[in-house]
Amino acid sequence: MTNFPEIPTELRELMAEIGPKWATDTKGHVRLMIDKFSEVLRHSPTEGVQVETGNSYGPHERQAFEVFHPASSDRVPRPGLIFVHGGAFTEGSRHRTEAIYANVLYYFARHGIVGINAGYRLAPEARYPEATRDIASVVQWMRTNAVRLNIDPNRIFLMGHSAGGAHVGSYAYDKRHQPAGGHGLAGVLIISGRVRADGRADNPNARRVAEYYGSDLSTYDDLSPVSHVDKNSPPTFIACSEFENPLIDVYCYELAHRLASAKGRAPPLVWLKGHNHTSIIGHFNTAEDTLGRACLQFISETRRA
């Protein structure tokens, strides 16, 4: 029987303590949660998963990724999932630590899903829409290699956290960034995604938003993923936490509302009580499984039309 580490009582108490004041020091609180959850994840299971390294989709060092394969001889084609990390547009890495963000891909691979942990170029070196173009290249790579990866090309999903959710949303919803044949996705998972660009004073990362999207605020609405939702947008799963970086929960709910209005049906939406902007991703592959199971249900029920 596989044992999963519990989130320690001390860590839950710390989450409850800093949660209401999360916005007073988002960078420091993110770093603290990364450190704490990396320690927890040292005890998470990784058996039954084969990690394929050394893959790239472009010449830049960040245009690289790992593939997480379920260790099984079963040749029935599986769903494929591409995970896109966050970092406020200017920072971050697919290897934030040895455990984060690999924990997300281990979780899905253990449940029979072939996963990619994707890197992409950052601002200010790569400004809008270069990160989205990188994501488009990873999607194309997965589709091209579907047979080798044992993936059903009609069951490819994109999942993004924070700024990664912005890049995922730009690709999924804004047709300007899609190939002639369309997005090629079965569905999208937006986890605490900054799906609206803004320069508001209450956004502690407004400067970083400008480094990616530029300083002309009048363009931000058109550049925002949420502005391009329509009835043909791919099925979308949305999650955010109780204690978010300022405005991210607002924009996640705006995305849900716009999708519901466009499609005549509300998308699945999870609000994770007691969690924060970092723990919502850091707790994957621990004993707490509420969000993970909701993601798995969405994937199991969704296929490309």
From TrEMBL:
Domain Alpha/beta hydrolase fold-3 stretches: 81-213
For the keyword Heme, the answer is: no
Q: Could you give a GO molecular-function term held by this entry?
A: hydrolase activity
- Identify the keywords attached in UniProt to this record, alphabetized: Hydrolase
* Protein name, as recorded: Acetyl esterase/lipase
According to its UniProt entry, this protein's organism is: Bradyrhizobium erythrophlei
